[in-house]
Automatic annotation (TrEMBL):
GO terms for cellular component: nucleoplasm. One of its GO terms (biological process) is negative regulation of transcription by RNA polymerase II. This is Uncharacterized protein. The lineage of its organism: Eukaryota, Sar, Stramenopiles, Ochrophyta, Bacillariophyta. InterPro entries: MIER/MTA (IPR040138). It comes from the Eukaryota. One of its GO terms (molecular function) is transcription corepressor activity. Transmembrane segments: none annotated. PANTHER family: ELM2 DOMAIN-CONTAINING PROTEIN, METASTASIS-ASSOCIATED PROTEIN AND MESODERM INDUCTION EARLY RESPONSE PROTEIN. It comes from Proboscia inermis.
Amino acid sequence: GTTSNAFPTECTSSAQHQHRNNKFAFLAKPCWAPGRISHTIVIKYLYDTGKFLNEYLKQCKEQDVTYASLSDQDDELWYRPQRQQNPPTITRECDRDRLLDELHNCDYSVTSAMQKVHLNPTYYLTLWSYAEKNQFDAGSRRYCGSLRMVTKGVPTKVEKEIVDYHYRFKITDQFRRYEEQKREQAQRMMVEADARLRENFSVRKGGEADSGLILGGSIAGATGGNGFSSGSGGGNTQKKLRNITSIGATEQRRHVAQDYLIHVRDVIGSKHYLRLVAVLKRYHEGDLDVPLLIEHITNLLQNSPNNPKEAEALVPKFLTFVPQIFRSDK
């Protein structure tokens, strides 16, 4: 007739929809109300609860307390020595989510929340015994860090707790050990650099400490990409030297030598310049001493087929790169 089943069908659909909302209503429970409490009071609440929980942790003989900072922005710095000397109050063992949730459940009454924390402190802590830690480590080694498999080896913990422990404790500890290794490596490099510095810049017998390497390390930079190099030369001298004064003087001499060699190549030509490079290389390999080096370079510059007058004028400048004792006779 004129009636239909639309209304009952609509009522049934609405009832099912309402039932579905009630079924999952617990999932939409609010966990924080913005503006109900100031950030300063929250920090003070975490400070006070953390201080109490720290004292409780000291009574747990199987617990190794690892300090972490209150600020998330400073978490990566917790492992540094200054943090160990003046540790913050909140530890990684403290469950901040539960502390804040308790504050919310107590209608943001700090006093009420503190009372509940004092009644059941273990609820707000992530506590692992030495046996559980050893089981976790053994499982990690056996299953190559597969947390699902590691869970089977720790019967007293569920997979959620395994994942939380891995990312809250183990990852941070590994990063701390990595940073310590890098710091030790840097210290060793500093010691080696200082030793190399004293060796390379010590006064040689015969007064050969003035310029020492004599244009070493500058040939490669002056070849203009033609692929010529001076072998070992002064390149080894510059490796990670940390003395600022000595480095400044060395780099300054090196840049002056590069400019000089570039000018020599432009004056005498690339073909004749290769002969000069070969002479310098023989000196650095030990085949020539300083007097022979001066003789060979002087002859090359004075007998240059290109621009002979300008090339001969380059000899006095070259002598400034040799030790003072060998310049006196010139």
